[in-house]
Amino acid sequence: MLSAYTKCPDILIVDDDSTVVIALKKTLEKIGRVRFALNAEQALMMINEQHPDLILLDMGLPDINGLDICARLKQNPETTDIPILFITSNIEVGFEEKVFDVGAADYILKPLNPRVVSARVKTHLAYHRAIQLLDTQAHTDSLTNLANRRAFDKQIVIEFKRALRVQDPLTVALIDIDEFKKYNDHFGHIAGDECLKSIATVLGESVKRPTDMAARYGGEEFAFILPHTGTNGARKLLYKLLTTIEQLNLTHAPDATYQAVTVSIGYSTLNPENVTSIEHDYAAIIEAADTALYESKQKGRNCLHYNPLALAAPST
Ligand SMILES: Nc1nc2c(ncn2[C@@H]2O[C@H](COP(=O)(O)OP(=O)(O)OP(=O)(O)O)[C@@H](O)[C@H]2O)c(=O)[nH]1
């Protein structure tokens, strides 16, 4: 969360006039790390490699029109939030409308005044960071620092659609702390919160791929979204998780089944061979994992169960 505030901003200048680039670089190096591209193709490659925090974009590039690049970046969900400021000497009629219609944040007129450039860039970087921070907070569980339910609900839709589209396996696991009511009743809610945090730390450390998600699903229940992960891979990861949590050896309430705090896990996998349409409903995989979790609870807790995903034909 803090990184959005403390990170040195990455600014990309896109202009074919090297004198403009040199002047801008000198001004902006006091604000952040500055990269530059002399044409659109180079710029798009650099943006793809690492998303900048702000782009200063010349309207009249030699290869692709600046307005077209801006429109393209705004249509891509991965780059849509990057503030784009046009630099231009073009003040023909209708120019302002065009700039804002394609989604630019602002424009700066040439000849460039370093103080104006600096002020505008700082303002837009500050807006951008504030939005990023709010977005992170809105998607983070404040007790455990894991992704929250809102983040999970968004991500499962994206990953389920992606898995259907590219015929890639996807596993969802639900992980529930066993007899947590007894823990709270015996040790109190503050100790209960500490226990939740300890378990959440293990969960966060168990998923290693950047596309994996560990989320607090609600109360004492957590969830994993594991893209590119089939049943066998998921079983290994989840079995290890089960034993790691037991080995934390967090003393449970005296009336609990196990001496140490344990979890029950249910999981289900979307396997490409079962996919008959890209319109299947993502809720099915959560329901399947939930049924498997119920089975783990029924079979004595501190165990994991798998429930195969039966995909119903999508309603037309
Ligand atoms: N301390 C604390 N307790 C919570 C939190 N969220 C949910 N709980 C507690 O978690 C407990 C869940 O109890 P139940 O749903 O009965 O389930 P359980 O006792 O874990 O039993 P099984 O799931 O069947 O193993 C309740 O006592 C909730 O109050 C929280 O944020 N902090």
Automatic annotation (TrEMBL):
Occurrences of domain Response regulatory (ranges): 10-125
One Pfam short name: Response_reg
Database matches in InterPro entries: CheY-like_superfamily (IPR011006), Diguanylate_Cyclase (IPR050469), GGDEF_dom (IPR000160), Nucleotide_cyclase (IPR029787), Rev_trsase/Diguanyl_cyclase (IPR043128), Sig_transdc_resp-reg_receiver (IPR001789)
Catalytic activity, as annotated: 2 GTP = 3',3'-c-di-GMP + 2 diphosphate
Residues carrying 4-aspartylphosphate: 58
Listed PROSITE patterns: GGDEF (PS50887), RESPONSE_REGULATORY (PS50110)
Molecular function (Gene Ontology), one example: diguanylate cyclase activity
EC number: 2.7.7.65
Superkingdom, natural source: Bacteria
Key words, A-Z: Nucleotidyltransferase, Phosphoprotein, Transferase
Domain GGDEF: 168-309
Keyword Nucleotidyltransferase: yes
Entries under NCBIfam families matching the protein: GGDEF (TIGR00254)
PANTHER family: DIGUANYLATE CYCLASE DGCM-RELATED (PTHR45138:SF9), REGULATORY COMPONENTS OF SENSORY TRANSDUCTION SYSTEM (PTHR45138)
Protein name from the UniProt record: diguanylate cyclase
